[in-house]
Predict the 3D structure of the following.
Amino acid sequence: PNRPGLGSSTCTTEAGRLGAELGVADWTLNKTDSGRSDSVAIGDSFLRYGLDDRTELQIGFVAYTHVYDRIGASVVKDGGFSDVRLGLRRNLIGNDGGDIALALEPYVTLPAGQSTVSDGDWSAGLIVPSSFSLGGDLSLGATAIVAAAVDEDGDGRHFSATQYLGLSHPLSPEIGLTGEVGLRYDDDPAGDVWAPVASASLSWTPRDLWQFDIGTVIGLEGDS
């Protein structure tokens, strides 16, 4: 699965099988000098269907996001269904194991969401996930993303690039620990943004084909 964490998986779903990844509740807090914004995403869904032994089709959406903005004495509450992300992942190396794995994942996001939780326009990009065995059950994951991201004003697109690096290690046969760092660059007409983040997550796999996870992402600078 992609969950948990920031980067993408290199693996594809078995041909003819549907995989479902569901975020029960994802809380995000953004602070500025003038106020704060809280959002809670319920039903953050990522569906993956295997087309062949190295290719999968993807669809991602959030069933409902509640937004609570406080700017000075003003309070705004809103929410709704999210934009829809369509993607295709093709594994190039290491789909069934090995020391190195690599995949390509082009995607497009459609502005299907409610106004307060929608980017307001379409976007597209390419995700390049990779992983490397470091020995002793330790693995390094690297995910690079380049995108035509929607401008802050919701009209038009700009160049965006992101790099995630993470280390994963099993604490037991059922429990895995992952730590990651990432840096996003947005060449938005409203102003360049450099946004570094760090993440920690735990996954529990009680049996085959089932995983439960929890994690946190922390902004390391104001633009994050």
About this structure: The first strand starts at residue 18 and ends at 23. The mean pLDDT is 94. The radius of gyration is 18 Å. The CA atoms of residues 87 and 107 lie 4 Å apart.
